[in-house]
Amino acid sequence: MTRTVTVGDIIRLMEDIAPPKWALANDKIGLQIGNVDKPVSRVWVALEASPDVVEQAVSAGVQLIITHHALLFRPISVLDTRQRRSRAIQHLLAADIAVYSAHTNLDVAPGGVNDVIAERIGLKDTEILDVTYRDALRKLAVYVPTTHLEAVRRAIGEAGAGAIGNYSHCTFSSTGIGTFLPGDSTTPFIGAHGVLERVEEARLETIVPESLLPQVLAAMRDAHSYEEVAYDVYRVDQPGPAYGIGRVGNLPKGMALSAFAEHIRDAFGMRHIRYAGDGDLLVERVAVLGGSGSRWVEKSLAKGAQVLVTADVGHHEAGDAWQDGLAIVDATHAALEQPVCAVLADRLQRMLHSVAGDCGVDIAAAPIDVDPFHWT
Fold first, then answer.
1. pLDDT tens per residue across span 328-374
2. Going by CATH, does the domain composed of 7-107+338-365 fall within 3.40.50.970?
3. Distance, CA of 195 to CA of 183 (rounded, Å)
């Protein structure tokens, strides 16, 4: 029997990829229109729910549109359906199509907007341009009979505990003697009612991001042999995993700024592109930020970039950046961000298949260009 998949099921997968807590302050993200309990069989991923996207989604029988740009970013006081955008909202409601938006949280997310841009450019050794979120860390110490030490160690590692830099499953264990006296209502794995039991146990310690603590504790309990698990959770002062906006990385081989701008134009399917800076400048290290990124000039310089690839850069911003030593390649907003839609749709499809099997839900990038700019 095919499992029914709902809007809420897809949202949960989406929030595994780009948790809402990663969004920048005052961003408008999450469910914008619709019912989380509605079953879905067709999902589109789009840069935005433009009137053209909505019109074709209604015709194609789509039940959920996942967008990068929020449909309802500013408060709406009037829905005048003589206007196209208002009619699009009317059509969404009439067709019962849900809209969910992941904006700066998808910019920040590993494998999200900025990683897709960096990969398409061909950057190597990428790192975060500007850290905007750190997960708090917790120290977990659990007492385990030595017979089950490896099972618990493996379970909590698979649940995400013990990640330090590029290493995973990092733990420490020491052995000693644990004591307990089972009460009359217990069903002890070891020992008997009313008899003080002594067991060789290990104290297993590891580090856990706070956001993963519930699933790590659940995995610990499932793998543990005891009816009542003895464990401690401590606050620690070390900074947790970093997440942030933008990426910076190195080109496989340096090239002149003018040639690099042409490379960006071709990589993102544009007819023309503009840049600010000396066309002969040797570009080796590149900062990228999808969307309007001119506020990150100083961060790009601090990271050693010779150029920032972004969009929506004004005259004074471009001039100031170049005078300060940073070249600018200014692509259109949509051209830079559109490629994430197909990547995200494929990722969601694979994630859904892993949890729901062949459930009959199709997730695809919306087959519509939403870039408002055209070149003659």
1. 999 999 999 999 999 999 999 999 999 989 899 999 999 998 999 98
2. no
3. 9
